[in-house]
Design a protein that fits this description.
Number of strands: 8
Strand content: 35-45%
Order of helices and strands: EHEEHEEEHHHEEH
Shape: globular
Structural class: alpha+beta
Largest sheet: 8 strands, antiparallel
Distance between the termini: 28 Å
Radius of gyration: 17 Å
Length: 183
């Protein structure tokens, strides 16, 4: 992987997909059997996903490779659902259902990044913050797509397992320069 921890020490993460029409029922079900995660309340999430010029990250996702790495910049919406607070650059490493995340807070905040186009030079520089922390090595990374979604988190009371439900996922912006270079 990247040399930070052994596979046995990584957090376990499982993901499930359900039709968008079932999201409200899933929220109601989780609210009935779990408690709200007060550490991480409901929020809107904006994520800028990066990829290499040859589409390595997209290829890993499509191929569902056992070993995956994704690079992203992320920020959240406040109580009024407007981008606010800090923004982070993150590398997420997966080995099967185990994962590790390296996260570095950026000097630029959420409200500053929200209106930037993905092909702006600012986005090109953010992966270097991870490289300085020892979390990212490798090829040139380009911002490709920016989805936004609502995230609700719950805690299952017996095991204290955190459950996240993401819904209303929308691709708000794409970097057409990068996507056309993948053809």
């Amino acid at each position: 992987m990247h040399g930070l921890r052994s596979v046995e020490d990584l957090e376990r993460e499982l993901k499930f997909v359900l039709p968008a029409g079932r999201a409200a029922a899933a929220v109601a079900f989780l609210a009935a059997i779990c408690v709200p995660d007060t550490e991480h309340p409901r929020a809107l999430v904006w994520t800028v996903y990066y990829d290499t010029p040859d589409g390595r990250s997209l290829g890993e996702k499509i191929d569902s490779d056992y070993l995956k790495m994704k690079l992203r910049v992320r920020w959240y919406g406040g109580g009024d659902d407007r981008p606010s607070g800090p923004a982070f650059v993150e590398a997420k490493y997966r080995v099967g259902s185990r994962r590790e995340k390296v996260r570095v807070e950026l000097a630029a905040g959420a409200s500053e990044l929200a209106d930037l186009a993905l092909d702006t030079p600012r986005f090109t520089g953010f992966p270097r913050a991870l490289a300085r922390s020892g979390g990212l090595v490798g090829p040139e990374w380009r911002a490709v797509v920016r989805p936004r979604y609502e995230r609700r988190r719950f805690i299952e009371p017996l095991t204290r397992t955190r459950i996240s439900l993401d819904r209303e996922i929308t691709a708000e912006m794409v970097n057409s320069r990068h996507l056309t270079s993948l053809n």
